[in-house]
Design a protein that fits this description.
single chain; Rossmann fold; about 260 residues; 2 domains; 14 strands; four-stranded parallel sheet
Length: about 260
Amino acid sequence: MNVICDIDGVVYRGDQLVQGSDLALGRLTRAGIGLWFATNNSTKTPEMVSARITEMTGVDVPPESIITSSEAAVGMLEDGEWPVMVLGSEGITSALERAGIEVTDDPTDARALLVGLDFDLSYGRLARASDAVRAGARFIATNTDPTYPVAGGLLPGGGSMVAAVQTTTGVGPEVAGKPHAPMRALLRSRGIGEAWVIGDRIDTDVALARAEPDWRSILVLSGVTGDGQASGADHVVPDLSAAVDLVLAGGPTVPISVP
């Protein structure tokens, strides 16, 4: 059995640990459950993510267990679709570097545009990215998450940057991250078979599980989804601790919800 766990809004929100998530991850690892982390957050490398989870929870999480939307997006590129322009952060540029793919800031030279959450977004960078798409660059989004959960609430997510390019150009993106096929293929390539998917988004985490016949979903309410919102999840629980209770118990026969 495997667990595919989201991170932002599930393990932590910004610099604040979700209460009990450290103990919950420890219980999973001690039980010998295959633990994987699938994130649409494209700002960090797998090494950065694993170090942060390990530091915040005390649970040793190897980089090989982290699957990012940046990796899925780079995997979509075909021969000749470079150099690539990036409207995003280190997670994307690092994934391109590892794949040996050249990056450019010249819109007329770019053969593809990769867009994700960008903390250094500027008008000039947005304009150049839009020019690249108008010039024929393939438009790939790491994800279309509209928000990004932090300790104080919600910030604009990668989807807001994607929407800006789409609105400016009239061209829609191909999407790499959860719940889309490139991310599912990347997870399957790690040998993940039957799995629980734990996450805080209906349109990414729950939809990811619904797209695969042997994956079941547990929606947690510690992130962006509030109590009372329609879910379609197999189970709805308050947080990661309660999700792990379900996993270790084998799951109830009837989905539960939070009153």
